[in-house]
Every structure is written in structure tokens, then in C-alpha cells.
Specification:
- Four copies of one chain form a homotetramer.
- With about 325 residues, the first copy, chain A, is of the alpha/beta class.
- Chain A folds into two domains: about 15-75 and about 115-330, Glucose Oxidase, domain 1; about 85-115, no CATH class.
- Chain A is built from ten helices and 17 strands.
- In chain A, the strands form four sheets. Chain A has a nine-stranded mixed β-sheet with strand order 1-17-15-9-11-13-14-5-16. In chain A, strands 2-4 form a two-stranded antiparallel ribbon.
- The interface of A and D includes residues 72, 87, 95, 98 and 144 of A.
- β6 (about 130) of chain A pairs antiparallel with β3 of chain B.
Chain lengths: ~325, ~325, ~325, ~325
């Protein structure tokens, strides 16, 4: 599908992020759209019929896991106490072989625990993840929504059964990059998105209720060359100016293969993730980050089909403002 | 489908679990069946065509999350250091409102971490979870597979993209229980499974590559009455004598709404989870536990369709011997 | 030493905890006493000379550890997400013996991690642990002191080198209890404290800068009979009416062998730890809880000396509002 | 005190660490010295009289905490899953001010948890930390001592009340370094230790039962210049050749301000911490690492007294092979 935003170029005043955010919010807010009590945001854009239709997109029956491995070799470097997962064993095979476990009839066992930030790897941002001037999704006060007990209203468990629908891969990296990779700092505009859709053909059309997966190629680079500053450093990503496209398309969710979804450095002199501030608390938009899209992209390119059934069920941690996920594209 | 195991009743010598296990292993082992290097076990039973077919089972497009909420109010009581998840916040909305976060342009954020056993709630057992006399799946030495570093061979990440296929709900609780619930200690035999299939009709037929979800009703009871000894105490579950059925049906995975899949107390005088010892290291069978099947069961009963597309993608923790999962049934 | 508070009995209006707290605060507050910037509270009451003197109290050279073991068998039951410590291994001796570690020249290693609430076992409450109507120690706003980043002002690291001085054991359990144990619900008043001091003799005199260790015997009971509701249930402990004694004695810290230091149920119809509310934010008093005093008490009783050098150095977790500690009494 | 080892120089064959270790073990082993059941190793070298004497060394009454702060800004970088501590809040002052906590009479609270490797910062190595060819302290099989359950025999809790005695600071950095700092790779020999003792005078004499604290100055450098490769990289430290001195002096423990106690790179072509392999499993020697000695060193230098009462009580985590500690020197 197409929107008219590409014909009305948005110019950004780099010195005034707060003004730009306020203007974008005025154009794009979804507050009240699904009732004052709503906790589902843009997931309201998907219907059961959409999900039934999405299932018809399955052809070969090949599933793709879009998750990174969750382990100590991940991208995190301690920013705001975000570490990589620490996985430890409660019981092991070496113990079983050594005969020290005490189970009867030759049974041995292994068991394990994990400690990790919920946004350490492939993830969904929940609606309680970002606030705009002290306001959370749908206009609630941030402090009434997310306390030390977690998100009491829009915890990720409210999305436990809703992250299912039509997925569309937009391989912007392949369309506009070199060897399939956009450089760090590349701002993906609405025009880039539209042209990618056009280049990929009809199966790449984006419409209401879709999950849009944008491949930049940065993760390809990080997996090849090392994480470097992948977690929080310079990165390709969506331009702040795509806010209107994200709103007008009425998609259910937007996903990238990068740490932070939007272009970094951000497009203002002093800013931190301004598009998040418009998208999450004001639009109620679900954002997926650090998804591993390469194998899926290869398959889509091979047969020219960019749509699939996406099942990206978040681990339903009660009150979580984000969640690890192992998204499955079935095509 | 049907097997002949119901006509050859297996009698158990309660004093000899080790002998019974050895005999069942002799009948049911899959070692070498998919090559010496195999790490996928019964997931080999699913083909791409099976997955494409499973997608055609979707009718209404209604998704069901089969996960319990992951939180402090879960069933764990500390057995072998298994606690409930501890979810804590790195940043909150109260902090954002208080203006203490230091972000520019009115942005506020919340972030969180979790610490939990990988088998604390709705889960898959990995193939490295259980050993038989020091041997892991496919005959490998337990100590060469699972060390303190985790499962180096059959870690749950090897199943990241494979837990997708046809799901079948067998509501044994509804068929044989009172008010839909089997009592604790009820041993579900092959006859019970077959009769449930027959009672439920053709959509409940079980065949190669299926994920079979057995509802006992114990979780219904625990959610209503309190956890009590749900984690490790008495429970309905599969009889040790179903080992042959589990093998002969060539299913991909077996799932229950209980803590431990098999009937407890176990059917020997001194034993601990003997069916696990046959199923995991010898058959390579994937076992799901603590799945919340009630809403799905209600829907299946309502329209008489017991099959669906199941996407139960484990969180791919590298080297994990089990994994939390938010399984999605789409029907 | 002696105070006159025993001669002016305080009567409590059980329906008005807020009024009683306000009145006690008016009598006992230390706000501003050590300057507006103070972060050390009653630790200001100890001088270097006091510590040098405390060292002269050492006679036999026998050290006593006053800590409980930190492990999975502790008293916690999940109240406000307080669990027992979860200790897991990163490397083990079984792995070393199995030869899977990869170190040269026959070296093997074991290593471990822990996850635990800072107040799960033997501990110090920090000054940021409790607030009175939104105010922290010395009158600061609670929200400016303790955010999700931790205690930015009075974190326990500020007390890292100060928990050293003269310790005095008051064995109220032995003086007033049966077989050395006070019953749950027993409110220890100033009179009980004074009479214990008198019964124990001159080495039990309490004065400025001392750490006072009050043994109730409840922990003796819990270690013998099982934890039961030790964590948060009924318990012997200090009466709310001891606030004045705690203030007038100018002690450095007060310690008990109970979960919560004050008597439980609390002495008002609807209340939660009202003496904490007076003592921590208003007096700046350090409170130790769950200290294991039995062996020390036995030794003190044996030779009639109730004073010793106490070194109770908190684990200096930056920004912590409490800390685990292994207190050492050297006598 | 003095030993004759300086007169018999040990020459190392860089190609044969295993031979050198075996030879050192033959000279230095303490196996069986304190009985077959012993779990205390060199802590047996301290007597009650020694501790009483150590208390007499206190002059000014000034305590020094020798611990680093435990926080996210520590030296760890993920080696063998060792991360820095992750400290998170269960309740905060911002929550209390926001009025969302639900406590009565104006009470507010803050509470916190930590997740950390036990050897992430200032620490004691326990006797179960290192093995020599599958053998732990006193000749026990490593796999019978340290399993996934932790150290079942020599867990750090066995040392809970024993880390108290005379401490001696040997400021080798000041004696042999530039501006008080030894360069990375500097191997401290017995001669260096002896000459430091001689330079510092009679209060620096080292004898049976002492805790010897060796300052190299590397931590001074790391705190000034950034951690860099402090955790595991090149460092000054004790030469392998000091094994005999460590044994013959009959000290209770040895401590450095470095990550790994011994010089790095180690003094063999292919090796990993060979002196640990001699000292821990064979001598039963307790090793402290990452102790912050600068303030203490300044004070010792100022008045020429290098001895003090050391109370370095490990957090008694049951079964731990190492422990965080806040050591207190009182002088």
C-alpha cells in the first residue's frame, strides 16, 4: 500500500527535538482510539480474519527462527546495567556420570537457571517501556503504570496471545545498501520504505495489522565483524520522519535487526531515541529489536515472496516492559 | 490413528524400575535412527509438508497462548533450587515522573531484568535434561554433553526453529475425570489415550510428527485451589506403560498441564520419573510441562475440532537443557 | 548506663499509629544533628577512641561468626519478592575430574555465582531502607535519595568502614523467657532492657557508640523447629516504646535475632513496622536483623562478660539500602 | 621473620609447568598435616592467642575497609561468565513518594537484590576453587567435593569465623615500583618480599598465622586509568618461586590488590595460574584478591606500623568456592 507522506517532505529542526516530538504526537497519537482502558495499542489493528489469512501465506512449511542465541557472547556491554544473559547449571551430566546426584534406577538429570535483562537480545518493547513527559500509553501517568513492581497495566503478559499475524520483510539493506548492508547512521525514510516495497513487489505491500520487519544489514555486519558498539552505538535505522508512515499504515508492529530501531546518532543535536517517544507512549506501537532476519531474507529473495505467518510470542513475564522472544516466520 | 499396544497389556513389577526401564528402552530406543550426529530427536518426525499442512488447519484465526504467567506467584517451592521467577526493574515510571532519569526532551524509560530457573513455568525439556545410566540422547556420555558450561551438543538452541507443527489436544481430564479433572495419582494409560481420541473424533487422530497436548485438569485445580504441591507432589499423568505408544506413534512432542508429565507417585516402589528416563535420552522425545490448556480445551470442545497449528518456540538459551516457552495454538 | 525513660511509662493509643510516630519523632529525631550533609546517622556516635577501647575488650581471642548460612534453606518465602539465595556453579570439580575444562598442566577450577535479596539473611538495614511520609534520613526527599539506580546518597557503601566498635549482648531471652526464648508477640520494653543490663552486670552497660545485640531466642526456636513464619510472622521484638531509649543511649546500632527487630504483630491495630519509621529515617539508626547470637550468648553467659569487639562490615554494594553481613564478635 | 629460600634460587624451566608444579607440591604440600578430615587448611595456623595478640596491635582505632565497591563499574568483562554485580531495586523512594506502595501510616520502603559472581570483586578464594589433577585440598577427589550443588566439604562457610588475626602489609609496590606501582608482568620473588619486610622494619615481620597483604600498586593504576585488562590480563604478582616461602612461613592467608595473585603472564610458556595449583589444593592456603590496599598503605607508611588486626569475614554462602568480603583492618 502507499501513503501520501512521501509527497510532503518533513524537515527537521535539529535544535528542537521537543518541538518535533510534540508536532509528531499531534499528528500521530492513538490515545483514546481503542477506549480509555485499552492496553493493546496497535495490536488492535489485527483481526482474527487477518490471522486466518496470514496462515494461508504458508507455502513450503519452512520455519525460520528470527532470534539471536541468548548467551554470554551477546551484544550487551553494561549500558544502564544491561548485561548479556548469565546461564548457569543446577545439575550437570558430569555430576550424573560421577554418580553424585542421588537419583534411583540410573536416572541422571541436568537443570539450569538464567539471569538476564529482558531486553538483552531479540525482544519486544512493551508499551510501558517509554514515556513522554511522564505519560505512558493512552495518557496514563507513568508512575501509576510502572513502579518497582513492574508494569501494572500494560505488562507484556497482556500481549501474550496477540503477536500473531501477517509478517512482511522489507529488506532495505539489500535495496539501498552495499552488499546488503546500510552504513551506520543511515536514516531510513518513508521514501526508502516505499521504494523497497515497490522493488520487492506485491507480496511486500504493507497494510493494516501487519508486522513489518525491516532489515538494515547491521546485524549481518556485527555477526561477521564483532559486536563493537552494536548496543547503543551508531546504527542505521528508521528516520524520525517515518512517524507518520508508522501511524498511517496502521501496522501492528515494527521490527529491525538493530539494537534501537531508529537511526543513531539520532537526527537532533541533543536527543535520545525520539521516535520511541512518539511511537510507544503515543501511538501504542510495538517495536521489535535485535531480530535476526538474514536467513529469512535469503529465502524471501530467492523466491520473491516477502510475506509469511509470523508468530512472535513474548515470554509472558508479568509486569514486564519488554520481553525476550523467539519469533517464528513460517512461509 | 491406532496402535496395537492396547491389546498387549504391560504389567509392571513395582519392585524393579530398573528392569522395566531397560525393557522399555530395548523396545523404544531411537538411538542411531537419525544418524550418530543427530541432535533433534523426535523433531525429525516433522516434515516441511507437515508444517504446511498444519497451517491449513487454521479456521477462525484465534490464537491461544498456552503459557502460565511468569512471576513470583508461580508453583515453585525451592525443590533442587527451583524458585519462581524474580523480576526486578532497572528503571521505572515513578522514576520518570520524579524527573531523576536524566534523559532529554521529556523522554522517560523503564527497563527490567529477570532471574529464573529455565524450567520454573511453562517449558520444554531439552534432550540434555535427563540421562540413563550416564548416557544422554543418542548414546553420548552425559559428561561429554552437559557440563557446567551447559549442553554443548543438544542445547535447546538446536530446536529454536523446529517447534512448529500440527498440535492435537487430548482432553483426558474431560473424558475420564470429574468436572474435567483427573485426580492426583491417576495413571493415564494407552487405553485412556486411545479412548480419548475416539471420543473426540477424527480431528483428534494422532500421527507422525504431531505435538500431542494432554490435558489432565490438574492445573485447572491448582489455579483454582492454590499451588499446594503441584511442583513435585502427587499428580495425574502418563503411565510408564505409555512408552510404547509414545514411540510407535512417532509424535514430535508430548505435553501436559502438570509439573512432571508422568503420573506421581510414580508406578514403582522407589522411583523418580522413570518414563522421562526412557523418553528423553533413549527416544529423543521432547516433553512439555506446565502448559495452560484450559482456554484451548474450551474452544476445542465447543466446535469439536481438536487440531491446530502449534508454534511453541523455546527461548533459545545457548546450551540450555530446558526452556521457557509461550506456546501459541492458532486454530 | 541508665536512662530515666523507665520511670515515664509511655501508653500507646492502638488506633493512632500515625500520631504515636509523629510524637516519637518529635522527641527522638536526629535530623541536622551531624550537619545537613550527613549520611552516617548514629554511626557518628562512635569515635576512634571507642574503637581502640573496644579492641581492649578482647580476652580469649575467640571469634564468633554471627551470620546464618546463606543458602536455599533460609527463612524467606517470597514476601515482596524476597527469596532465599540461589547459588549456582559456573565450574565444578566433577567437570574438572571429567577433563572437560580445557586448562593446562592438570589445573582444574570451580567458580560460582549468587542471586539474592540483600536482606534475605543476616543483614544491616541501610539508612535508605525506610521512609517517613516521603522523607529519608536527615530530611531528604525519598525520591531524590532512592531511585531504581539505588540509594544515591546513603548507600550502604558509606558505612563500609564504620561498623566496628564495642558490642554488647543483651540476652533478654535468657532473662525473661522460658528456656531462653521469648514467645512470639512479646514486646521488649525499656524496662526489660534495663533489667537485663542489671541482671548481666557491669559488662552489659550500654552507652554512646555501642552496638547493642538483643537476643530474643526466636531464632533458636526457628532453627530447631523450622522456619515457619519467621520471615514476617509473629515474633518477639522491641516495643515501639523503646524509641526514646534507642535515642537517649546514643548507641550506634541495634540488632536482633529476628526478622524484623520490632515486636510482631505490631502494637497498633493497623500498622507495619512503626518503630522502623521512627528509627531509620528520623534517628538515622542502623538496625541489624537475623543475626545468629546463640553461640556468643553461651560464651557470654559462661564467663559473665557481655562486651566484645564487634566487626560487622557490610558487603559494600554501591547504592544498596541493606546489606548481607558476616558479623564477627571477638572476645 | 626470615627464611633461607632466598639463598637457594629456584630456576624455572619455562617449558615444563607440570614438572615444576609437581616438584613444588612435593616440597610444600600440607596434605594430612591437620588430619584427614581437615577443611581449614592454613587457617589452622592461627591460634586464639594469636587473635588476642592481634587485638593488642590496635592503636588509633581507625578502621580501613579494604573492599572495592560492588557495582556495575567493576573490572569484570565476561571471562568465564564472570560479570560485574547487577544490583536492582524491589522498592524505591520514588515509589514511596508516588504513594504507590500501600503501606500504612506514611511508611515507605526500599529493598533490593543482587546477582553476582562470588569472585567478581574483593574476595577470598575458597579451598574448593582450584584442583590439581582432579584432587582438591587434602587429597580429596575434586568430583566428590565440588558438584553442581557447590562445595560439599570445604565450602567457604567453614571459614566463616576464622578470618581474623594479625595482618601485615607488604608494600612491594612502594619498595620496588615507580611512584608506588609495579609494572604489569613484574614477578615478585621471595627476595622482593624479604627486602620489603626489611625495608619496612620490625612491624612488617611475617610469621605463623599471619595474613600477608601484598600491595603491587596495580589497582591504584586501574582505579586511575580505567580497568582495561585488569581482570585476567597482564599484572604484577607473586612469582611461582614464592611457593616455598608461602609454605615455610606458615601464614594463614596471602592477599594482593590484583585480579589473580600471581604474576601474569605466568612464568611458563603455556600455563594458567600454576601457583594457585600448588597453593590451594596442596597447601590449603587461602588467597585474597582484588583487595583495595591504598588507604591502609598510606596510613602504614605515615607512621611506620605495618601490622594491624584484620577481620576479613567472608559472606558465608553455603558451598561457595569463593566469597565476597569487606575486610576491615583496625590499627
Amino acid at each position: 500500500m502507499s501513503t501520501d507522506t512521501t509527497t510532503s517532505p518533513i524537515t527537521l529542526d535539529r535544535t528542537d527535538p521537543e518541538g518535533a516530538i510534540a508536532a509528531a504526537v499531534a499528528r500521530c497519537s492513538n490515545w483514546g482510539r481503542w477506549g480509555d482502558d485499552d492496553v493493546h495499542g496497535t495490536l488492535n489493528n489485527i483481526t482474527a480474519a487477518d490471522r486466518a489469512y496470514a496462515a494461508t501465506l504458508v507455502r513450503s512449511g519452512r520455519p525460520f527462527s528470527l532470534a539471536l542465541p541468548f548467551d554470554n557472547d551477546g551484544p550487551q556491554k553494561g549500558w544502564r546495567r544491561r548485561s548479556n544473559p548469565v546461564h548457569t547449571m543446577l545439575d550437570t551430566g558430569t555430576d550424573a556420570e560421577a554418580g553424585v546426584q542421588g537419583f534411583p534406577h540410573g536416572l541422571g538429570g541436568a537443570d539450569d537457571v538464567i539471569s538476564m535483562p529482558l531486553q538483552c537480545s531479540t525482544q519486544w518493547d512493551g508499551l510501558g517501556h517509554i514515556f513522554d513527559h511522564g505519560r505512558a500509553w493512552n495518557g496514563r501517568r507513568a508512575g501509576q503504570v510502572v513502579t518497582s513492581d513492574g508494569d501494572r497495566v500494560t505488562g507484556i503478559e497482556t500481549a501474550a496471545d496477540r503477536m500473531v499475524g501477517r509478517g512482511v520483510l522489507l529488506d532495505v539493506g539489500r535495496t539501498f545498501g552495499t552488499d546488503g548492508e546500510l552504513p551506520d547512521g543511515f536514516a531510513i525514510t518513508t521514501a526508502h520504505l516505499e521504494q523497497t516495497i515497490e522493488a520487492q513487489g506485491s507480496t511486500a505491500a504493507v497494510g493494516r495489522g501487519d508486522f513489518v520487519l525491516v532489515r538494515t544489514g547491521q546485524l549481518t555486519r556485527a555477526l561477521r565483524d564483532g559486536w563493537g558498539d552494536y548496543a547503543g552505538g551508531a546504527a542505521p535505522g528508521l528516520s524520525f520522519t517515518t512517524a507518520d508512515w508508522l501511524r498511517q499504515t496502521d501496522i501492528a508492529g515494527i521490527v529491525t535487526d538493530t539494537w534501537g530501531f531508529e537511526v543513531r546518532p539520532n537526527e537532533f543535536d541533543v536527543a535520545f531515541q525520539p521516535l520511541h517517544q512518539v511511537a510507544i507512549p503515543n501511538m501504542g506501537l510495538f517495536i521489535g529489536e535485535m531480530w535476526h532476519l538474514d536467513d529469512l531474507a535469503t529465502a524471501c529473495t530467492a523466491d520473491g515472496r516477502y510475506e509469511f505467518l509470523l508468530t512472535a510470542a513474548p515470554l509472558p513475564v508479568t509486569g514486564a516492559v519488554g520481553a525476550p522472544v523467539n519469533p517464528i516466520a513460517l512461509r
